[in-house]
Amino acid sequence: xxxxxTATPVPDIQAARLAPAEYAKRFADATPRFTAAQALLEAERxxxxxxxxxxxxxxxxxxxxxxxxxxxxxxxxGAARTILDSNPLGGMCARVCPTENLCEAVCVxxxxxxxxxxIGRLQRHAVDALMESKQPQIFSRAxxxxxxxxVVGAGPAGLSCAYTLARMGHSVVVFDARPxxxxxxxxxxxxxxxxxxxxxxxxxxxxxxxxxxIRNDWKLLSTAQLEALRSEFDAVxxxxxxxxxxxxxxxxxxxxxxxxxxxxxxxxxxxxxxSTLPVGRRVIVIGGGMTAVDAAVQSKLLGAEVVHMVYRRGxxxxxxxxxxxxxxxxxxxxxxQWMAPVEIIGVDGHVSxxxxxxxxxxxxxxxxxxxEITWEADGVLKAIGQxxxxxxxxxxxxRLQGGRIxxxxxxxxxxxxxxxxxxxxxxxxxxxxxxxxxxxxxxKAIHAQxxxxx
Length: 454
Hints:
This protein is α/β, with parallel strands linked by helices. 35% of the residues lie in helices and 20% in strands. The chain folds into 3 domains: 2-28 and 246-385, 3-Layer(bba) Sandwich (FAD/NAD(P)-binding domain), CATH 3.50.50.60; 36-131, Alpha-helical ferredoxin (Fumarate Reductase Iron-sulfur Protein, Chain B, domain 2), CATH 1.10.1060; 148-243 and 388-452, FAD/NAD(P)-binding domain. The protein has a 5-stranded parallel sheet with strand order 5-4-3-6-20, covered by helices on one side.
């Protein structure tokens, strides 16, 4: 059976769908900050467990009971120190980490009150208080080692690696392809998660330690560049993320109005006036991850009337957390599972609809049921994952796994003197907090090796 709608020949894509004041209201902080009283009350709910499961669940190993106890004692500076000593990007992670799947998922308060301690919001409360204080830089550098390390990529992994190395007394030069540092923290996250230009404020806090130089608009385009880095620097860390987006491989994918979700989010994040951003009246987002949720929700916030988010498997297989899925629905996004795109339909060179085929698991394989449905669309956003898309890595002889760089547990690659971490490293969860831990672990491994050969 096929269900269809009638395609509209003229795409309805407009800017300024909302009143000017409505944009600020809609894109305000999705999770308002705790007041001092709220933070104190929430901190007092913590049981300060011995061998706390929340600390074990944190990829960066933050001593959660310790920092919450300090908040309860009114020592926000001490709380922030505990957090940032383990996670130098603790402010951003407090905003964007899927805490419902990590530290808060194992909070023992679940068994007593069916509500965990709000660890993420308490973490943000402490770090924000430090960063807004008169003396925000809480750490100092060790004695200079005379060693200089190159870091490729100013995203979470690269910044974490650079900061950790700088604390150990090394000098670091960070090379990044973008005009602004921060990686996905700056270009790839929903603006309502990181309002107030926080990504750049955090970068400036990291640079305040000293010993870190950032060179923007630098891209790794040749093996000669990599060899120059290996020759000029004492070690190299690659944390450049994933540069390319996966293709659907469908008819009509090159039609106007079809766009990568990451490009849509980046344009929104860099816009000084959201009212100038055009958005379709009917938007379809293809994908089931957090990028898909961010793109779908922000399309709705920009004024799209109908937003479909469509995924080919079931809700349990979606990489977007249950909380993210519920957030999308709360904001008016219609979620569909078990639907795979078959064709993007166009009129006069512009997308007008997308045809989907219903899927079912047969012998553990996705199989079309024979039922199809077509939804009208003025715009289509693709959010089906990203890839390295950099031939230099294979040309340089890196061992790759699934298109990403294979490393040991500390991020060491098969190329002498080169480490890697973050999304470009094989076998990860593609989370900001995990990228931070990758950078930290590689920095410690680099330091150990350089110290042994000094």
